Amino acid sequence: VIDLPGVALEAEEEKDAAPVIGPEEASAEHEEGRRVYRPAGQVHAVDFLENGRAVVACGSAGVHVIEVFPRLERLSVLETEGFATDVSVSGDCVLVAEGEGGVSVCEVSPGSDELVRVARYREDLGGSIRQVEALEGEALEGARYALVTEGASRVKILDLATPAAPKVVMTDKQLGLLYGDQLMRGLVEGRYAAAFWHVSGLHWYDMEAKPWPAHSGDNWAQRIGSINGLFAMGDRTLATVLGGYVLLERSERRPLAEVEVRRIGEGRRRHLGRPTVSGNRLYCAERAQGLVTVADISDLEKPVLVEQFETGGNPGRIAVTEKAVAIPDGYGGLIVLDRSGERR
User: Fold this and answer.
1) Longest C-alpha distance within the chain, in Å?
2) Considering only Cβ atoms within 10 Å of each terminal Cβ, which end of the chain, N or C, has fewer?
C-alpha cells in the first residue's frame, strides 16, 4: 500500500439516478451531390410522400417530415410514444411502427407538412411493432391493408378501410424469428404479400381471399439469412441471398442449392441486405457491414454492379425518387444522394 498524494481521489458516493444526457439538435450537412440529415435519434427508415418530401423514422426523436431536394430542411416533427423504427406511405396515409406504442395511422394535414395521428393500433399487442408495410393495388379494388411484424415471431394484417379504426383481420406465426425488415415491399401478381422467417423461409398471403386476407398455402422453406430481404417483381419475388438474388414464383419448392442465384460483382460473397428496385436499378443496404450496393438490372438474368460503398452507420432499406436516393443510416443520419450524376 503506497501513498499517492494529489493523485488518488477521494471516493464520492454516486447518486442513485441515471445520468441525464440532453437531446441533440437536428442538423444537416450539405456538399456537392450529397447531403446528410442528423436528428437526435437513430434513423431507421424513410419513405416518400407524393410531393417528394421524405417521412423519416428517427427512433427516440419521433417522425420527421423533411425536404430533401435541392437542400435538406426539416418541416415538421411527430412525437411518438415508442421508438419510431419504420414508416410506410400509401397515398395520403402514413403508417408508423412505434415499438411498444403500436402502429400509428397518420394523415398529412391539408396545406401543410404536419402529420396528424388519426388512430393508433395496439389492441392485444403481443410485442413491439418493428416493421409496417402499406398494401394496396388495383386488384384489391380500393381496399387498404397493412402488414406488420409483432414481437419476435408474429405477423398481422390490419384492415385500414376506416383509417380511424384499424382492425386485425389475420394473425400468423411460423417457425423462426423476425429479426427486422423481413416483409416484402409490394405485391406479386398484384395480390400476394410475403414475409420470411429465419427458419421456415418465405410465406405468401392472398390479399384477395374472402372474407379476409389469409395465408395462400405457399411456402419456400429455405433460409436466406435474416440480414437479407424481399421485393415484389411482377409475378415473382426477388429475395437477396449469397451476394446476389433469386427470383421466386409462389410455386417454387426446390432447395436453394438448386435455384439459380444471379450474383452481383466478383470476389467473396457479401450479403446484399435489404433490396429496393427503381426502374432498372437495384439498391441494397446491408446493416451489419454498413454496405450499400447498386446494380443495373436492365437484364434481370445478368445484373451488373454499378457501385458499392460503405457508410459510416448502419444502413436500412433505401428509398428512391426521381431526383434523390435516401439511405437511412442509423446513427449516421439520413444520407441523401442526388441522382443527376447516376450512371444510366
Assistant:
1) 83
2) N
